[in-house]
Amino acid sequence: MNFKFFTALILYSVIYLSSRSYAFDPCASQPDDSDLSVIPIYGKCSPFNPPKISWDNRVMDMASKDDPARLTYLSALAAQKTVSTAPIASGQAFNIGNYIVRVKIGTPGQLLFMVLDTSTDEAFVPCSGCTGCSTTTAPFSPKASTTYSPLDCSVPLCGQVRGLSCPATGSATCSFNQSYAGSTFSATLVQDSLSLATDAVPNYSFGCINAISGATVPAQGLLGLGRGPLSLLSQTGTNYSGVFSYCLPSFKSYYFSGSLKLGPVGQPKSIRTTPLLRNPHRPSLYYVNLTGISVGRVLVPVPAESLAFNPSTGAGTVIDSGTVITRFIEPVYAAVREEFRKQVTGPFSSLGAFDTCFVKTYETLAPVVTLHLEGLDLKLPLENSLIHSSSGSLACLAMAAAPENVNSVLNVIANYQQQNLRVLFDTVNNKVGIARELCN
Ligand SMILES: *[C@@H]1O[C@H](CO)[C@@H](O)[C@H](O)[C@H]1NC(C)=O
Ligand SMILES: *[C@@H]1O[C@H](CO)[C@@H](O)[C@H](O)[C@H]1NC(C)=O
Ligand SMILES: *[C@@H]1O[C@H](CO)[C@@H](O)[C@H](O)[C@H]1NC(C)=O
Ligand SMILES: *[C@@H]1O[C@H](CO)[C@@H](O)[C@H](O)[C@H]1NC(C)=O
């Protein structure tokens, strides 16, 4: 090789590579990757204005304000009755997105940061002209898309929507209202193409929100990953083989480092699994068989019935991506707390939703909390079981009882407890896989 050329090549490479690394944008997703990045909603790369409080205060805040509404929502779902307008939540269920993914809807694609919600089937997006929707970021603009079309009441999927307001006869646009705690939103079922990283889903049906009163929905919508008929899994047919997984980065993390992987490709080959239970009355929820909880080496004694799965009452345990801290029904939480307190040096105080806070110096005594799922023991790393006060002087057990006003039969494994884990849902083989994965 000619020496001059060789030098030029090296120089070129140096310049090229350094300009590449200079241009590296930690907030950009990898364009050639079919994984979708996931970040906490108030991370640095989020378009939503983070509240000017620290992440731990934000978690405290969500745990005490948003979670009770979420639990009300999940309990209502679990105990679903046949009502035409399903209760969504008292106030802010939709405000509770903690993790967002970046998707594009329409042609050309409009970039939207949507909240990930494994307990909802549908996707909802605020559409232009929406009254009462958030104005902090642009809504989806149907007019700017060449592939958009509203759906008619005669479309089979329309019949799956809750709160439908189709006329008994004649043709009309598929519209529906959903109400919750004095608030209502009205939406139209529409279809357009959805781009998830490098994958395209043509004619994806979702709710285009036209009006909302009382509560707000996430500024750029919600992507449902439940497994009912309107879900992304159902609408994509066999393309993803009913399989997806996510790794939620730490709440502390800034960048798009977590990931949502759709389909069987690239999933961990060997992963410990637990059966995924199916509740025919509540097809969107991901129920698992929690058989016990250990604190340190002690298997906490709980009433036999308190963890049992019961499809008709909705009782049991779900894994959810939209609740912040894990909630157990009262007798279960009381037993866990009692054992935890026995093993850590008090005195104990309360902070927001947490009732077992202690001087951080004693953190080294904190026992490991293990969730015994059928066939899989999930030992929670300390970052997933303890939370610190923002001043840093206290550590608290980051779990709570279901809120008192909720007549709850449901235990919820929430996302604080899922940080830096890969959680794999296989809805065809009815399995949930869980493995430690650092995705900070
Ligand atoms: C749905 O909401 C819209 C707007 O708030 C209202 O005009 C309409 O009457 C509602 N429809 C039903 C069936 O409740
Ligand atoms: C999407 O829907 C439109 C209108 O309903 C239809 O013309 C088109 O063929 C559909 N495209 C695909 C890929 O199914
Ligand atoms: C399934 O994937 C293929 C290939 O990417 C794509 O052409 C097709 O539109 C997809 N179908 C659905 C329903 O998403
Ligand atoms: C949960 O696991 C326990 C222990 O293996 C088993 O006895 C029980 O039948 C399981 N429950 C369900 C609903 O599968």
The CATH topology annotation of the largest domain reads as: Cathepsin D, subunit A, domain 1
Indicate the proportion of strand residues. Answer: 25-35%
Main pleated-sheet profile: 17 strands, mixed
CATH superfamily of the largest domain: Acid Proteases
Rg, Å, rounded: 23 Å
What's the level 1 CATH class of the largest domain? Mainly Beta
Runs in which pLDDT lies below 50 for 5 or more consecutive residues are: 1-23, 80-97
Shape: globular
Distinct ligands, ions and cofactors found in the model: 2-acetamido-2-deoxy-beta-D-glucopyranose
User: In CATH terms, what is the architecture of the largest domain?
Assistant: Beta Barrel
Span between termini: 44 Å
Supply the number of helical segments: 5
Helix content, binned percent: 10-25%
Assembly category: single chain
State the secondary-structure class.
alpha+beta
Average pLDDT score: 79
The number of distinct structural domains comes to 2
Number of strands: 27
Describe what this molecule looks like in 3D.
The protein is an alpha+beta fold. The protein folds into two domains: 242 residues, Acid Proteases (Cathepsin D, subunit A, domain 1), CATH 2.40.70.10; 165 residues, Acid Proteases (Cathepsin D, subunit A, domain 1, Beta Barrel). Helix content is 15%, strand content 33%. It contains five helices and 27 strands. It has a 17-stranded mixed beta sheet that branches. The chain is globular. The N terminus is likely disordered. Bound molecules: 2-acetamido-2-deoxy-beta-D-glucopyranose (4 copies). One 2-acetamido-2-deoxy-beta-D-glucopyranose (NAG) binds next to loops. One 2-acetamido-2-deoxy-beta-D-glucopyranose binds next to loops.
